[in-house]
Specification:
The structure is a homodimer of 431-residue chains.
Chain A lengths: L15 E3 L1 H5 L17 H4 L5 H7 L5 E3 L2 H7 L7 E3 L1 H7 L4 E6 L9 H14 L4 E6 L3 H12 L3 E7 H6 L1 H9 L3 E5 L5 H9 L7 H14 L3 E3 L6 H21 L5 E5 L4 H15 L5 E7 L4 H4 L1 E6 L8 E6 L21 H8 L4 E5 L1 H15 L5 H19 L5 E6 L7 H8 L5
Parallel strand pairs in A: 4-14, 5-6, 5-8, 6-7, 9-10, 9-14, 10-13
Antiparallel strand pairs in A: 1-2, 3-4, 11-12
Helix pairs in contact in A: 3-12, 4-6, 5-16, 6-7, 6-12, 7-9, 10-11, 12-13, 16-17
Chain lengths: 431, 431
């Protein structure tokens, strides 16, 4: 397996983000203006994002340089470890080799920091003073809170109410970084008030929280909006994961047969898989699997069409797999996967049959997470547990076929702030 | 600065534990039999510990080989990172250089795993089937639960009641590893029942929990007792920290002027400091500081005398600094530092003036922890925050004297399971 990355720092961090769609000449459908349903004019997006972010969102370069201050910030935790899950393999009694890229090793405990640092820097560079965002389980909010502090920005986080209640530690951590955290739906925004008027007990959803954060950004001077997944530039930033993993596998002399990530909006899957997809497009046999929750089956049961990214219809419309912008997923513990849509890039790859999607029930993901922590010692985030469940399933299938495959998955975050969910699991109180 | 370690693995893990007292010919006062007050006969200790542990407890070798299976287990997380706290230095506006050894990078989040793995292996090797232990904040219990699972042992943990209530996540994590967790004082032991009879609202203490675990071990066949600090063999195991740190500083061409650790029973301080103390005994200028809580000031205000390690008087008596075996510390959040005694080795070094001790109020340690997480991104355990407070104080003192010192401290664990304490701090509800 050859790596697609032109250069790394001496310690092994890629110096460029990898732009698969530009590199492979894959087409993308343009985002539409919610008012006119015509392709949106870039200046309208400028209300939400700084120029540097928009340039990356629409970049046609295959390799986008990582700014020096972002590389410096990455150096605190990158490259993240690539490990073989030897003891987990033994527990599964599989003949396959399972490797994982451990993004939970970042200071905030997940892959979200990769894009948070890049976005915070690009905003700070253009004089933005505050970022507004939403968060589900809190991993993205924590990452942006830390990144904002690092680059001197204030940060306002709208946190999905069901997660706000389930994960008080996440809120405390964001506040320690200096962020202002509001449970969503809230009465701070028109979108929030409208949702509360319909249902005062609304558990919240990423769709509603995005509406609130977008509204906050466009109504406050000096404030821009930041999104933790879905958009092209977010997926671009996450490709540091897959580039590192390719190089680390090369050093071990190992070739991956399958690459797996959990799927909420698409960023951790894409971050790991895009550099490998280049090889697949070049003819290498490679299975790419997106693992999603059965209770929010965007990729396995959604429609591929233009839809809004949020509930209130404030965002541009993008072409994606969607359960409908009004869909409110069950309050499962994998809050980061409770999203009605999917990244346009991931959707396009799925439509073309370049990746596949599988859905897993909540209890089964906690079962496999327990097996993983007992063998590997690392407690997975409930989101990441979906990737482990898929990797274990691929191993079982390969064993049944007498094949010895190499399966690489993204352990996108640790679950140390999700112990309430694990307690419910141990007590048999999980749906 | 030259390192005292004879050999490392190719990845940089020491292959031997360092026995400072043997190497330097420092004397130790023998443990006494609680019944006779005469030096205890080794076979009596055999009821609590396996032969392999006792040999290490009384070893006269300067370098004790680390068994291969333990080295293999260490390889999952060692060597741990040594980092310069550049951004924290900037926040302190100090001219000193602050380095930290980050033991929170272990799977269970603290240095405790270093000795847990060694002890679990030595017990399993001799056919022991279950380990009984106590835990304060839960870091030790979590480490032993994981290590027991790894080496095929069952594990019973008596957890100090105040911590059991403050940190439910810790209990869940231990249970995920398969351990049985009991709040202490409990009605499962004579020692627990006696304590509850005196006070049904007793918050628990490490002294009481040790009594319960020791009683559990001696009354259950196939069960031995494991201790997470204080004893010679525990301190011995932790010297992997300081040996690695010496080598990592050498690679950077840096010489430490001061070495700092927080102090509960003495193991994380000793683990970092003992290899450096060898150099100090050889004449190198070096300040060693133990940082303890003002509410449990064992080293700064205790007496140096023979005392029991537990409340019920079941353990051998050892010569140490002590607040008295009946002392019940306030239920501060740094539960791992709520111990009336201190390691005999640490006590001897303090008496000889080779190390010094300083005490810090709870609120001041949380203040400095907030400053640290905002700059370095890592949330310190409340215990470890004491080391940061001491390091910051040394930096201030050096600045006032116009000296530019290199200060190394042990960041013994992360605080992600202590967010309840941090929330109390943010809300102004901390004593």
């Amino acid at each position: 397996m050859r790596s697609i990355t032109p250069s790394f720092t001496p310690t092994g961090i890629p110096t460029t983000f990898y732009n698969l769609f530009a590199d492979a000449g894959l087409p993308l459908d343009p985002p539409l203006d919610p008012a006119t349903r015509e392709p949106i004019r870039p200046e309208k997006l400028g209300a939400l994002f700084p120029q540097g972010v928009l340039e990356q969102e629409m970049s046609t370069a295959a390799h986008v340089p990582i700014p020096e201050p972002v590389l410096e910030a990455y150096a605190a935790y990158r490259p993240t470890p690539l490990r073989r899950a030897t003891r987990f393999e033994q527990a599964l009694q599989t003949r396959c080799a399972l490797y994982y890229k451990y993004e939970g090793a970042s200071p905030v405990g997940s892959h979200k920091l990769n894009t948070a640092l890049a976005q915070a820097y690009l905003n700070a560079r253009e004089g933005v003073t505050r970022l507004a965002t939403e968060t589900g389980a809190g991993q993205w909010g924590t990452a942006l809170a830390y990144a904002s502090r690092r680059f001197g920005l204030s940060c306002s986080v709208y946190m999905v109410r069901s997660s706000y209640a389930q994960k008080p530690g996440r809120r405390t951590l964001m506040e320690l970084f200096g962020a202002e955290v509001t449970p969503s739906p809230s009465d701070k925004t028109e979108a929030g008030r409208r949702t509360l008027a319909e249902s005062s007990e609304h558990p919240g959803s990423l769709g509603v929280a995005i509406s609130e954060a977008v509204e906050h950004a466009v109504t406050h001077p000096g404030t821009k909006y930041a999104l933790g997944s879905v958009l092209n530039h977010v997926l671009l930033h996450q490709t540091v994961i897959g580039q590192e993993a390719q190089r680390q596998l090369e050093e071990l002399g190992v070739k991956a047969d399958a690459v797996v990530g959990c799927h909420g909006g698409g960023s951790n899957l894409s971050g790991l898989a895009f550099p490998f997809l280049r090889l697949k497009l070049d003819g290498q046999a490679l299975q790419i699997v997106a693992a999603e929750p059965a209770s929010c089956p965007t990729l396995t049961r959604g429609e591929y069409r233009y839809d809004f990214g949020d509930t209130a219809g404030l965002t541009p419309m993008v072409k994606m797999y969607t359960l409908g912008a009004a869909f409110v997923p069950d309050p499962i513990h994998a809050g980061g996967l409770r999203y009605h849509g999917a990244a346009p890039m991931v959707s396009k790859l799925l439509e073309r049959g370049l990746i596949e999607a599988r859905a897993y029930a909540q209890t089964s993901t906690f079962e496999v997470a327990r097996q993983f922590v007992q063998t590997e010692g690392i407690l997975p985030a409930p989101e990441s547990a979906h990737a482990i469940a898929a990797a274990a399933e691929l191993a079982r299938e390969a064993d049944a076929q007498g094949r010895r495959r190499v399966i690489l998955f993204n352990l996108s975050g640790h679950g140390l702030l999700d112990l309430g969910a694990y307690e419910a699991f141990l007590r048999g109180k999980l749906e």
